[in-house]
Amino acid sequence: MVMATPYLMMNGEATPNMMMNGVATPYLMMNGEATSSLMMNGVATPKMMMSGEVTPYLMMNGEVTPYLMMNGVATPYLMMNGEATSNLMMNGVATPKMIMNGEATPYQMMNGEATPTMMMQGEAKLMILKLEAPPKLTAPLRPTKMSPRHPERLRPV
Predict the structure, then answer these.
(1) Are 47 and 31 in contact (CB under 8 A)?
(2) CA dihedral in degrees (96, 100, 72, 88; nearest 10)?
(3) Average pLDDT value for the chain
(4) Residues 83, 65: contact at Cβ < 8 Å?
(5) Residue 57: CB partners within 8 Å, gap ≥ 6?
(6) Do residues 120 and 111 touch, judged by C-beta distance below 8 A?
(7) How many other CB atoms are there within 10 angstroms of residue 150's CB atom?
(8) 13-41 pLDDT, tens per residue?
(9) What is the H or E stretch that residue 66 is in?
(10) pTM passes above 0.85
(11) Neighbours of 78 (CB within 10 A)
């Protein structure tokens, strides 16, 4: 077993035993390298944050790194606050904030769902298609006595 001396500890050098047990030295922490112990506890080092890597702890608390934002991955925190990422927009998922503000995603537009903003601006996309027409409109229109278009269809009175 390799033991760490005060000198090693002071200089932040890690021994195989320390690495195996996931103990982080000041040197490791300073350089932002994560050990197994750090990963297991979900602690993010500066290097990990800079690279946008996410630990379970970060995910659980809904904190977002540049990597997550760039790839459009939404954490529970983002979803809860209604913030939309590029991935959400691409998949047409609307967050509570978007719905509340009446913003429509491509998915909603494609499926003809109208949001308050669309309705307010008079753009009820495909909503008419979803409504059932009354029987009066669905029946074929019969020519009347006064039909100027088809005089041959006029019935004798």
Answers:
(1) yes
(2) 80
(3) 54
(4) no
(5) 41, 42, 43, 44
(6) no
(7) 8
(8) 555 555 545 555 555 554 545 555 554 45
(9) helix 66-71
(10) no
(11) 20
